[in-house]
């Protein structure tokens, strides 16, 4: 389970990691009031479970009182990578001298925790990793030995903080950084995290080391040990992935514009690959599983389309336990309630495929195409999405 930045930061604070005073706000007025309590300048930050908020315009620095409500209003109206922004974090702003990157992640390749550090952090960390992979310190941590002092020292050395001033309380920046690395390791263990990332971890002009961002993923299999986090996961109905989980769907939001629904993880993954090979990009991974009933199909479509960024919908079913006519009924149920304004391509093969195709053909819905096979379905969906995106951009002009 991915945590929102503000939730991750409250775990950070509990683990003794340095974070700045902040408030969560759900409206421009609340944001304004929060800024009043915190004092200017503040940063207003979109709370969505996705990186790249800075580049998407979801992070705004406000120096004057009048700017806060307007920035919050703008950000609350945004949708970033298919996620509507429902709240913002208003946080005291600092003057940044250095932006570092620090993470501990469960690495499949290492079969264990991996400590990652870069002296060049910030919004372009992916670019740094591509351009100069050597700029990243990557240190496997033995789970039995735990984080060793020499590993902490390696990070501190790589950070080259000798020129930074000591903090007002006299603590050298190097020492603060060492404390952050150790505290992050403790949090990673205590929270059963699979990822604890701080980007940027900054050194301020005043020589303080502060976590400006937090990205924490908790191992779903350990949620039973974290009652408070589990309750939040179940309560977060606004969140698409949580809604999907409740409906019994395996769902992951992706960046593209072709909504994908299929049965079986392998089928859905290969469909996403085929879409990419045909020049398109998938908006989600959505597996309705085996034997799904019409209601599950309807719930899946609801979650997929709620992104609001879908230009075409591709439904690919190979019926084993799943009956294709059940899927067709679920699809028609949704289409009867709301006319979709995007092309829908359906591929039905296997169990009760004939009945399913007949149901769809009889409904004679404009915009709905029943494809002859999986490959044709992908081709039609990619072409349909391109045409739709083109029509949308003309409408906006
Ligand atoms: P992300 O783009 O989703 O990773 O969002 P971040 O929380 O990492 O913020 C993006 C960028 O906003 C950071 O790299 C900083 O450069 C900038 N930023 C965030 N907080 C502050 C702040 O308090 N002061 C200043 N000057 N910049 C900030
Ligand atoms: Mn960040």
Which key terms come to mind for this protein?
alpha+beta, binds guanosine-5'-diphosphate, 397 residues, binds manganese (II) ion, four-stranded antiparallel β-sheet, elongated, six-stranded antiparallel β-sheet
Can you tell me about this structure?
The structure is a single chain. With 397 residues, this protein is an alpha+beta fold. It is built from 13 helices and 18 strands. The strands form 5 sheets. Strands 7, 8, 9, 10, 11 and 12 form a 6-stranded antiparallel beta sheet that branches. It is elongated, with a radius of gyration of 24 Å. The mean pLDDT is 92. Guanosine-5'-diphosphate binds at residues 43, 45, 51-54, 59, 61, 93-94, 96, 99, 122-123, 199-200, 212-213. Residues 199, 213 line the site of manganese (II) ion.
């Amino acid at each position: 389970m991915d945590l929102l930045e503000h939730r991750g930061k409250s775990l950070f604070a509990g683990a003794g990691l340095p974070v700045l005073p902040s408030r969560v706000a759900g409206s421009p007025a609340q944001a304004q009031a929060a800024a009043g309590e915190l004092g200017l300048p503040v940063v207003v930050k979109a709370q969505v479970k996705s990186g790249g908020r800075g580049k998407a315009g979801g992070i705004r620095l406000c120096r004057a009182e009048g700017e806060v409500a307007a920035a919050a209003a703008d950000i609350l109206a945004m949708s970033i990578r298919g996620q509507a922004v429902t709240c913002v974090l208003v946080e005291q702003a600092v003057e940044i001298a250095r932006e570092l990157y620090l993470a501990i992640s469960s690495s499949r390749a290492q079969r264990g925790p991996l400590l990652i550090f870069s002296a060049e952090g910030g919004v372009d960390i992916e670019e740094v990793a591509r351009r100069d992979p050597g700029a990243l310190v990557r240190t496997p941590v033995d789970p039995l030995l735990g984080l060793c002092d020499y590993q902490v020292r390696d990070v501190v050395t790589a950070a080259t903080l000798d020129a930074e001033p000591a903090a007002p309380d006299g603590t050298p920046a190097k020492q603060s950084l060492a404390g952050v690395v150790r505290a992050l390791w403790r949090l990673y263990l205590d929270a059963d995290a699979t990822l604890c990332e701080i980007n940027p971890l900054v050194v301020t002009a005043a020589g303080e080391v502060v976590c400006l961002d937090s990205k924490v993923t908790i191992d779903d299999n350990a949620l039973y040990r974290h009652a408070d986090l589990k309750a939040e996961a179940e309560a977060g109905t606004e969140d698409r992935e949580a809604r999907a989980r409740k409906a019994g769907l395996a769902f992951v939001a992706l960046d593209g514009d072709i909504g994908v629904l299929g049965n079986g993880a392998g089928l859905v993954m290969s469909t996403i690959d085929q879409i990419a090979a045909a020049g398109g990009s998938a908006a989600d991974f959505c597996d309705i599983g085996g034997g799904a009933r019409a209601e599950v199909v309807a719930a899946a479509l609801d979650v997929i389309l709620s992104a609001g960024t879908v230009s075409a919908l591709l439904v690919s079913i190979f019926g084993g336990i799943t009956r294709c006519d059940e899927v067709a009924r679920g699809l028609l149920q949704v289409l009867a309630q709301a006319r979709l304004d995007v092309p829908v391509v359906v591929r039905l093969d296997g169990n009760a495929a004939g009945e399913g195709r007949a149901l769809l053909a009889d409904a004679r819905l404009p915009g709905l195409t029943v494809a002859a096979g999986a490959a044709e379905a992908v081709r039609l969906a990619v072409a349909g999405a391109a045409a739709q995106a083109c029509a949308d951009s003309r409408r906006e002009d």
